[in-house]
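Why predict the complex rather than its parts? Because the way molecules touch one another can change local conformation, and only a joint prediction can capture that. The input here totals 1016 residues.
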Amino acid sequence: MKPTGVIFFPAFDWAISPTHPEREERLLYTRDQLFEEGIMDMPEVREYHPRLASAKDVSRVHFCVPDVTSRVTEAHMVSAGCAMVMADAFMQKEVKNAFAIIRPPGHHAMTVVHGNRGFCDINNEAVMVEYLRRTYGVKRLAIVDTDVHHGDGSQEIFWHDPDVLFISFHQDGRTLYPGSGFTNELGGPLAHGTTINIPMAPRTTDEGIHYIMDNLVLPILDEFKPELVINSAGQDNHYSDPLANMSFTAKGYAILNQKLRPDIAVLEGGYSVETALPYINMGIIMAMAGIDFSNLREPDYNPSRFRETAKNMDYIRSLVAHQLAAFREREKVVETNRKEGREFYGSSRGIFYDTEYLQEEQRLDLRMCPDCCGYRRISSSCVHHSGRSYSVFCVSLPAACCPDCAARARQDYEDMKKKPGGDYLYLQDRINDEYKTFETGTGRETTL
Amino acid sequence: MTREKHEVNNMLIGIDVGGTYTDGVLFSEGEVLSSVKHPTDENDLEGTLLSVLDELLARGGTKDVRRIVLSTTLVTNLLATGRGERTALLLVPGSGLPFSAYRISPDTYFLKGGIDFRGREIEGPDVKEVEQVIRKVHDSGIERVAVAGKFSNRNDAHERMVEDRVRSLYPHMDVCTSNEIAGRLNFPRRAVTCYYTAMTMREWNRFADSIEAAIRARVPGSDVHILKADGGTTTLDASRKRPCETVFSGPAASTMGTMALSRESLNAVSVDIGGTTSDISLIIEGAPLYASKGALIGGHLTHINAFAVRSIPLGGDSRVYDESGELRVGPMRVGPAACLGGSEPTVTDAFNLLNGLCLGDTDASRGKLEAVAGRLGTSLEELCRKVADEVVDRLERNIEEMFGLWEDEPAYKVWEVVHRRKFELHRVIGIGAAAPAIVPMLAAKIGVEHFLHRYSPVANALGAAVARPTLAVEVHVDTGRRTYTGSPGGLKGTVEKRNFQLEDARELALNCLKEVSRERGLADYAGEAHVYLEEQFNVIRGFTQEGKLFDVGIQVAPGFIHEYKGVA
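Output of the joint prediction:
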């Protein structure tokens, strides 16, 4: 039997600020627990060495303003690189599955990056997904986000991508950052139903979450038939997390992973550094490696402490039924949307960067392509911390882009170069694996 | 070789007991005055050691020996052959991995109790249960007990309680606690190390007693040191509590010998080519590389610091033959090279002809190899070249794999990943009898210089003779709980919470090292300690700082005694 790959990157020399939840201490006790248990010595586990993601790896997903190197910290580059190391280990069949216990996290980072959102600069899972597609030709994937916070970054990145099923369960956005992830957020017009949100009431327990797993998440995965399942393994649903209000246990997380059987799991949030993380991380490794976890429990664990209320179970049952139906009618809805025959579908919105207090204004246009999921044009402006205002225009080709969209997208980029206005133009050409930046002020173009 | 009597008391002796041969040297002022090689009698290591010692003393014509360092296989043999006495392992694992992960001893018992990573008690032990288990151990005729608890390195209370119960119920039993043996994280390795210690302590002490008496009778006033797996020495007395540190001292002796001969701060690979096997070790900027996970003994990883040595079944005596029309080199050894009277052609024979080494009976080399060449339908020269290529390729491949493994060690800091380690080799150092024939070609193939020394054949015993004591201390300070604990085991105390900083942790570590080195009779080298590990973490609860955690490691690294100034 092949081992489970583990990469442990606690970034012991990096913090957002000394007392920030995302600080050096975050995975310290996890280190102590993993090392003391000696789990990395077991034949069921193989430990890997981290590496840096390149600017090109990041550019497959993001438009970093003004560029990757000046926008993204080295710590985030290592974190994303670690996810890629796990992807390699899995795809090269060195391991049966893989778990990246890494920080900083990534699931709040969106396509355009002006700064840090929800402790994230870049999206580790998304960088890994595009790497998997580019390097190994993987097409259909599913991301199951089990962080207590809505994975709004991952949702936004794959919103128009029908080949990535994004499922997020999280504490109801009316009670917690980032305030999104409601049931009506189901994906863009050509990717409707491949985004599934499961907002849960505060204090939901193991029982409630496992009902959702058994009756919604697993059936949907079964029907979607992804080539690969990724778990965005946030650990802040735990009853002791200081930033959220749920009642999940370490054993609950282990059982969840036993059921989900993710091919690759990537740590996201989780800020109960002493009471939860050491035990949940152990639990996930053990579940993925097939090691009996019945002896694993938190120091203050009491099996009878949390009971699901009948009222919450009623809510969960109706939520599950509703979202299962939404998922099952996805193809019909997409077909209807396509028949409308619009050239472009447009939307505008503001995006708030909580870590840095930035406000981005964004306009997105999706080509309603009859043959593929369409290419995207994004114009975005934001005043950065430095006081400088940036206005950028981005063109993105999907991985499964049709030749017509590819030609039009490239032409759009070339046309924009001739027009005045804006600071930077970007072309994300996933078909040619080419990423261009055009600085309008100097007329200089760089290609990654 | 024997030289006239030296007048001053500056003679050093190193004896390395190997699996096949025992080597000894008498060394003084940069010269090997005398060297001795005897076959090792596995059943009488003491006798072998003393016969080598006696011959060295007789040939040197002196009893003015200041220091004797022994490298022995006693503990390695006991553990490797499973001849150790039956030993019970009492574990206090608490929550975490299933108990089935810890079946180290056939006599393993699990006890209630739990400590967390900050040394806080999670679950108290049950005295009644402890006493019942101890009685059961006694009733099954076991007299040696090892006690290990998870996170006992952060709080030893549970292990101590069990130890106390054993001592008061059965004072004649040997009992070891894991926190005393090793203070680092990794409970299974600590348990294994403690178990092996309890298993071998009595035999080691019996050996130490008699060898000490025998040496005292011959050379009164000399210091007796034991070579450890980490390439350093410890006093015979201090070794009594930690017999396991003496495992794998043979490869350590060779590596220290290599370093003694090639004393530059280079990246080097040391290739010790013996008859049956070649041992490869890496030297990085002049310092030998350690096995990152500790010594592997009997299939278990331990907390014993040992060099990362890769042994491959390929040596000067590896047989050269043909099988189904294909050339084969090794792995078995049938006897010595044909040129040295062996019945089969070997690797040494091929190099003998290829490089015109004129070893022994060159005609015998030619005759035996021609027969193989004839069956394979190639010329003799072609065959020799093929054998050499095969040997050099295999060595090179293994060396590259070792670089790769070193470069791919896990890293836990951004800095370490951004400044990724890259191994750039400067030289290949050859030791062992067959090295002069093979190592120059190997180095040429890799494209670096080679280094051979006239003392290469006795490098192991020389390495033992001039190796200095080593000692490493790691302290873990928790200012929130006002405690410190550490390695080597048994270190603990309290700290003042206010304003304790990294400098204080460093000073604390240094003081601990000084104290431990005094206890072990190694104080001469405490001044050469350097810090190798430094970590500090703020403990934040809410948004305020509750304390700090420090990990500081300080060590006297492997090196040479003060009077060693190189070889003449």
